[in-house]
Amino acid sequence: MKYALLVHQSQEHFDHRDDKAATAAGRAYAEALQAAGIFVAGAGLDSPKNATTVTVRDGKRHVHDGPYAETKEFLAGFGIIDVPNLDAALEWAARHPASGFATVEVRPLLGFGAAPAKSR
User: Fold this and answer.
1) Which fold has domain 2-108?
2) What does pTM read for this prediction?
């Protein structure tokens, strides 16, 4: 079963992303996911300050710079893993280095188009 691990963190953490220890922990976590053979895809996201949102209302496109949502935490990155069940996904979410200061949401994928075909 495929799950998305969605990391939500504060703007303060976005502003301090150059921390070498945090970067090393993130790389080690990614390597552990790959070594376990469960990594499907993932990426960190740039600051919400650099986001652009698009809405269409009454057939008209509206573009807004910067974070649109009024929230204390923003989506910082995601990972897609393929594990046997929710318990395994929760274990991997708890191992995420950001789980100590951010929220890691675990959400099942619906399944269609969720992962590219594996290369041979």
Assistant:
1) Alpha-Beta Plaits (3.30.70)
2) 0.80
